[in-house]
Design brief:
Arc Repressor Mutant, subunit A; globular; mainly alpha; 3 strands; three-stranded mixed beta sheet; 2 domains
Length: 163
């Protein structure tokens, strides 16, 4: 099953894209606490999955961090149980588990049809990012995933930046 399919199954089953609500349904405790320089982390405490989000970041970034860390729970719980997941770095695509969690986040938060419609209107990645209120890096991850699934964007083929 692809990451896109996993996300679509979760959205259909629970009727939401809110990562905090999904955590409740999936039995993942979420704590907002001081974390120093870290934005968030996913771990197991007393055999229970826990996402800890930095209390120093605002609500929208907290949603992104929670969605990314939820991706680790859904895709990498077995790794986290061993205590080997590294800290969360926004949009790190060089590490396989981080890249997968970023793809999970992009597919959870950005609707294919909505983004496709913006591109069909001739919008740039920067314009679409402003309209959708997401970072360009997240849109670039989503676009790359959509292209892998068969979407074609002539104007964007050379402008998709993943790093």
């Amino acid at each position: 099953m692809t990451i896109f399919e996993v996300v679509e199954e979760l959205k259909e089953k629970y009727g939401t894209t809110d990562p905090f609500v999904l955590c409740e349904y999936l039995g993942v405790k979420v704590s907002v606490s001081p974390l120093g320089s870290l934005k968030g982390l996913y771990t197991y405490i007393d055999n229970e999955p826990v996402i800890i989000i930095s209390s120093t970041i605002k609500r929208i970034p907290q949603l992104l961090v929670c969605g990314h860390e939820l991706g680790h729970h859904v895709l990498h719980a077995n790794i986290a149980m061993q205590g080997t997941l590294r800290e969360f770095t926004f949009f790190n695509m060089r590490d396989k588990t981080e890249a997968e969690a970023n793809r999970f986040l992009a597919n959870l938060n950005i609707d294919d049809d909505e983004l496709d419609a913006l591109f069909r209107e001739g919008r740039s990645v920067a314009e679409a990012a402003q309209i959708l209120c997401f970072p360009e890096e997240l849109l670039n991850i989503k676009i790359a995933d959509m292209v892998r699934r068969g979407y074609e964007y002539e104007n964007y083929s050379g402008n998709i930046r993943l790093f």
